[in-house]
Amino acid sequence: MGGGSLWALRGRAPHVGGLRILTDHEHRTIAALARAILPRTGSFVVGAADVDLARAFDRFLADEPPYNQADLKNALLLLELGPVLFEGRRVTFSRLSEPERLAHFERWMRSDLALRRQVAVAFKKFLNLVFYDTPDVWPYIGYDGPMFRA
Prior knowledge:
- The longest helix has 22 residues, at 66-87.
- The protein has helices at 3-10, 24-37, 53-62, 66-87, 98-109, 114-132, 138-141.
- It is globular.
- With 150 residues, it is mainly α.
């Protein structure tokens, strides 16, 4: 599959205003990942859909040195094209159903390829750190918040 075909598979991403570093496509990819690994569930009614983790990732990335920005943007592109590159599918990560996204990402976590595991661990750590540091989530994990508030 040629490079033009890969870009065509991605399709258009909805415009997201106010991004500092991420493109609309990159925002769509990280948002899709966040929703897959941090869904709303039963008694835990707050999920990634309720917390703009993709925008938090954009803010984080804006303060990183250029080499980190480039590496993480490349990692997002690799994740987006992962189903095509690693599984021979004709669909990108963002266009998978949520259960398929989660299954695809879990395969990254167990991959024999160190790069895929490193990308998966980095994104999972970041998304969990930001998610569980969100005040809306604290009641569901039994955390009352910091003892001293600014």
